[in-house]
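Chapter summary example.
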Amino acid sequence: MKKILVTGGAGFIGSHLCEALLNQGNEVICLDNYFTGSKQNIVHLLSNPYFELIRHDVTMPFFIEVDEIYNLACPASPVHYQYNPIKTVKTSVMGAINMLGLAKRIKSKILQASTSEVYGDPITHPQPEEYWGNVNPIGIRSCYDEGKRCAETLFFDYHRQNNVRTKVVRIFNTYGPHMHPHDGRVVSNFIMQALHDEDITIYGDGSQTRSFCYCDDLVRGLIAMMDTDDSVIGPINLGNPHEFTIKQLAEMTIELTGSKSKIVYLPAVADDPTQRQPIINKAKEILGWEPTIELREGLQKTIDYFKNLEMR
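The structure predicted for these 312 residues follows.
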């Protein structure tokens, strides 16, 4: 049994990770300040004697003895990370410093949940880990993009300077149950609009692409990365390499919900990437990982979750 700390553990991905780690027989400490996370996501875990929930903000120091740290704490949707952009940068940067300092003191492994947003609006397509990105450092999305880029810098510097056992993964668009229904992300937006027979709003002409990874697949990748030996640091892309246009996603959502919604087009959002697709050769070769759940299947599971949420 390992003792594992998950920051942002009550969030969308964090809650699934906590559950998977518990199912493996580990002791899990979930750390969250509930800015975007929710107790509802982990309430079913509270009866497990090996699960502990602590309310704490990662921008403040935290002390504990654990074997592994998964650093997932940060608002990840545009609505949430633009609500308080300074807080978003603090969470990414100061949170990384605090968790890396903890890992240094207790000599634990630590994994950073970075993001495909470090690639910005990519000129290189699809995106390999070697691509340095095309990020606007002063735009409305910069608080998240540059905060995560700085966090990656810190992880590599703590490894080089202090021999901290660091690992970095770059997460591409992920979806599934426990998403916040009003987080402003395209999957949750489209599903909620479709369930209410409202217009499906596409910002731009709908030709921009994304690659959607189901949450269960992603969690497998996170655990596989943590379980590698100390020579594997990353960064490693985790995402589904199958690319879809936003218009295709809208049409599939309408079909699977049986909605009467119509698609409407609104002006494009500033700095919104036109293309996003991971190259996952490293994940395949080093982790033995690739996604198994395709968009139609995962989208149906997510729709079912939102339907039940609406009923509650």
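To summarize the output: The chain is about 40% helix and 20% strand.
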